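in:
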């Protein structure tokens, strides 16, 4: 059983001491980024020796990865919608080729699971996001995952269904594999189709590129910010990132269609939750 102190640099980021000056400074910095551009990076949160440990756990489970390649629009749809013009974002399909290590590949007590389920980390993230509390995403496949971009792959422009995402870069590509985003390009009341169309056509105006390094934790509001991970060259090592999913409400389960898209399967929990789901907004997705 791993201890959080062996994974997270608690000297620099005392997550166990929320009243400390260092904790408050980290929260203040993260809030500034989240308020201004919907993104915050906590540099070197994971100890260097633990980065190698986390990457080793991903490599050990990589054989369980569900890889898929498809043409999709930013809303994860793959079929033409006749209600919209031909060159509309809804009918603009770009390659997504990547893989996900599913949640049921991680056993309790492994380092990645310990970090994900640490109440100290959840409290810190809630403070950064300015919400009362966070719960580990109850989805059996999408709660704790790892995103894999093997050589030649990319995760094209898209929106998240969750309000925010938490990731830890574990292994960077030799080149490429860059996280890029357009903050607040849409809102709950405005789809922002014109601006999105420009980005999909190659307009770089307003596109931010993050300088992420292994061990950095990223908090990102991906529901309203268009984002992608650029292609990893064919001569590069893979890009590995651990993904920690949290929700403000307990017991949340993901959608059937998106789950099948990313993991190639669904479980009974997904089917049951789909029948009870209530939409939080009217966005396309």
């Amino acid at each position: 059983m791993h201890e959080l102190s062996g994974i997270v640099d608690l000297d620099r980021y005392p997550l166990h001491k929320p009243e400390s000056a260092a904790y408050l400074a980290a929260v203040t910095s993260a809030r500034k980024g989240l308020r201004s551009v919907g993104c915050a990076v906590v540099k070197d949160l994971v100890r260097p020796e633990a980065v190698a440990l986390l990457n080793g756990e991903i490599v050990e489970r990589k054989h369980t990865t569900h890889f898929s390649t498809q043409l999709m629009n930013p809303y994860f749809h793959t079929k033409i919608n006749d209600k919209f013009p031909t060159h509309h974002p809804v009918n603009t399909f770009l390659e997504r080729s990547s893989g996900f290590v599913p949640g049921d590949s991680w056993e309790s007590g492994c380092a990645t699971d310990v970090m994900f389920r640490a109440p100290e980390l959840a409290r810190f993230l809630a403070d950064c996001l300015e919400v009362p509390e966070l719960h580990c995403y109850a989805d059996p496949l999408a709660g704790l995952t790892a995103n894999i971009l093997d050589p030649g792959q990319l995760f094209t422009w898209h929106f998240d269904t969750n309000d925010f995402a938490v990731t830890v870069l574990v292994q960077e590509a030799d080149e490429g594999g860059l996280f890029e985003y357009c903050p607040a390009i849409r809102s709950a009341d405005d789809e922002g189709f014109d601006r999105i169309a420009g980005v999909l056509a190659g307009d770089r105006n307003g596109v931010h590129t993050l300088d992420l390094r292994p061990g950095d934790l990223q908090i990102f509001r991906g529901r309203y910010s268009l984002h992608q991970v650029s292609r990893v060259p064919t001569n590069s090592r893979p890009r590995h990132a651990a993904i920690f999913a949290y929700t403000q409400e307990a017991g949340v389960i993901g959608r059937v269609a998106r789950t099948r898209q990313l993991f190639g399967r669904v479980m009974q929990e997904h089917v049951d939750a789909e029948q009870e789901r209530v939409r939080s907004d009217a966005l396309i997705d």
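note: The chain has a mean pLDDT of 95.
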